[in-house]
Amino acid sequence: MTATDLGTVRYEPPLSHSLPHARLNPTVLWTGPRWLRGATRWHRVRSGVQYPHFQHATFHAWCGQTITDENRPAAVDLPVDGAPLCGTCEGRAAGAGHPSPLGGAVALRFDPERLTPPRWCPGGGPYGAARHLGQMVGHRVVRCGACGELLPEINAYGWNPRYGQPRRHEPGPGLVPGCPLHAWRHLIQTSEGVACECAGLERAS
């Protein structure tokens, strides 16, 4: 039985700060069991991925642990084997707005990283993640590769010139969709337009 057969609990995106890697490019699991059994307790699942070179899925608990479903009991309903639930997992999941059969009236809060558009567009300077994606359309006028807005070119002179890069700006309505693995941190130019680097690796592999 695979992880996605064990329930219909909706997961968070498995966002990662690691660089895209062709061999490790995983498939995102959006549903699966609510809990996985660890060594001494049950952990609440936050996200999951399936790596192409593993038969078992890999899950990330809300407490920060990584757990595979290989020979691990899983549950969607509240486990009744007597083992405790991880308190860190339950508090974070409840605070992030994930319903639980536990109930309770304690006010909790946790703000996970989600696919929320960033304050500053990743295509803008001086430290934009999507450098060299801008397209010059006029004298010192650049079309942002990440959101499509027309903007002034960043100062192209000095000790660290950046020709053809727009100035720092808020993302426009045409911002490219965020990658569920890397958000907007690793945008590149592909044959089909601007996308996350992992999409290009997947097509190349």
Note the topology.
Elements: E1 9-10, E2 27-29, E3 31-32, E4 35-37, E5 42-50, E6 58-61, E7 66-68, E8 74-75, H1 87-95, E9 135-138, E10 141-143, E11 150-152, E12 187-190, E13 193-196, H2 197-204
Antiparallel strand pairs: 1-3, 2-5, 4-5, 4-8, 5-6, 6-7, 9-10, 10-11, 12-13
Plain-language structure description:
It contains two helices and 13 strands. With 205 residues, it is mainly beta. Strands 2, 4, 5, 6, 7 and 8 form a six-stranded antiparallel β-sheet that branches. The chain folds into two domains: 3-95, no CATH class; 135-204, no CATH class. Strand 10 and strand 11 (150-152) form a beta hairpin. The radius of gyration is 21 Å and the shape is elongated. The protein has helices at residues 87-95, 197-204; strands spanning 9-10, 27-29, 31-32, 35-37, 42-50, 58-61, 66-68, 74-75, 135-138, 141-143, 150-152, 187-190, 193-196.
Main β sheet profile: 6 strands, antiparallel
Return the domain count.
Answer: 2
* Computed CA radius of gyration, to the nearest angstrom: 21 Å
Low-pLDDT runs: 1-6
Helix content: under 10%
Run of helices and strands: EEEEEEEEHEEEEEH
* Morphology call: elongated
The total beta strand count reads: 13
**pLDDT averaged over residues:** 81
Question: What's the N-to-C terminus distance?
Answer: 28 Å
Strand content: 15-25%
Tally the helices.
2
What would you call the structural class? mainly beta
